[in-house]
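pls ignore typos typing on phone
flavin-adenine dinucleotide + seq
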Amino acid sequence: MSRRSTDYPLVIVGAGAAGNGASEQATLLDIDHVVLEASHRMGGRGLTEYLEGGIPIDLGCHWMHSATLNPYVAIADACGFEYLRIDHYDYAMHFHGAWLDRTQRSRYENYQQESFDRILASYKEFPGHSIMEALDHDSEWFPYACYWWSLMHSNDVDQISVQDFADYNDTSEDWPLRNGYGALIARQFETVPLSLNCAVSSIDWSRSPVRIETARGVLRAGKVIVTVSNGVLASGDIRFFPSLPETTLTAIDSLPLGNSNYQFFSMDPAFLDADTPENIHYLDGESSMAIRIRPFGTPCLFTSTGGRFAWWLERQGQSASRAYFEEALVKIFGAGIRKSLREFRCSAWGYDPWIRGAYSSQLPGHEDMRQRLSEPLNECLYLAGEATSPDFFNTAHGAYLAGKDAVTRAFGHEVR
Ligand SMILES: Cc1cc2nc3c(=O)[nH]c(=O)nc-3n(C[C@H](O)[C@H](O)[C@H](O)COP(=O)(O)OP(=O)(O)OC[C@H]3O[C@@H](n4cnc5c(N)ncnc54)[C@H](O)[C@@H]3O)c2cc1C
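k done
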């Protein structure tokens, strides 16, 4: 940071999707600003890495959800990033050692639809209920549905309020990017005024200018937009003076990050034949997995974990994650698959000190906490990460729009 003790109209904390949106809006409005990022890289929970042979893998966000309402689609077009326009994924189901037939699969789909209806009905009557309370527990599909919910919200069904499902604006269009969502978000920072390895340790927002202590010195700013995850906010790693109001602290505590991690294998392309399904829903004993095979035709497959199980497996380490995924693949494809599996990679979002989990869920018993979290403080401090999005929380585009909205509100221009 070359400037000392001055003096930006706007400082943005965090170079993830929300920081991207905030910086883009500030540039549009011609507001001088800088983005301060604690880690050595841009993207936050968007992170694309590469398996042997240069196969891109997203360790964080991968699908452009609600694609026709998602601003990253236009950004991908502008940057020449290829994606699949897809609103329906074909899948097979391998439950308890056998492939399910079409009738069984449609029973599962009916259960899903009934669950959605039950949750919406429950929200009208009991807005503070959990998703767990709304579901039919006696159904044979309940265990797999619990896994699915843990991927969507990164917490388990008893930890997610029905309002989170009711408020989320899902168009059922989930479009994956060939060269990675993380790579697309990182690309957006190429022209942004950015300071990496610049952890913010304290923010004094008692008066204007706001005083920001960082690993690289002190900055003063007219306004500050903080986009760090709720996991980071809850950890106390950033000290606020005065401390955040009780209402904001309650909102942070009632929107905790759960955990979700991806597991990837590259593999011998000869092992799987052309008839292998592209997606497999798998259940065996306590183990549930959604497995994606050969994304974009690449010789690779991946799955993901969610909720308490994701926290637990992450703590067991990489080799345990590898063994867990490999065992399921052996149950589906036979022991012959072992020798075709090559490089293994997995994420560890709970361990990442700058993230501390995956994405936020509103706990049962609470209402409208996302709105409360986004309320401006002293007209100079704005919280604007993924958790503050009213309708696209848990997503990259929700974070991006929340960042943009925060700048617009801070500087008094029209929202969206
Ligand atoms: C496994 C997984 C799968 C996902 N899949 C999808 C998906 O398919 N589609 C989708 O849309 N979304 C998905 N998401 C969610 C999406 O990635 C996030 O909602 C979004 O990226 C969050 O962006 P953000 O800017 O709010 O926060 P972050 O990305 O967390 O950005 C905050 C930034 O702040 C930085 N920071 C932290 N502390 C400090 C500090 N003290 N000082 C300065 N900087 C600091 C962090 O390093 C980080 O870069 C997924 C997330 C995970 C974990």
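The chain has two domains: 7-44+180-256+361-410, 88-170+260-348. The CA atoms of residues 375 and 382 lie 7 Å apart. more later
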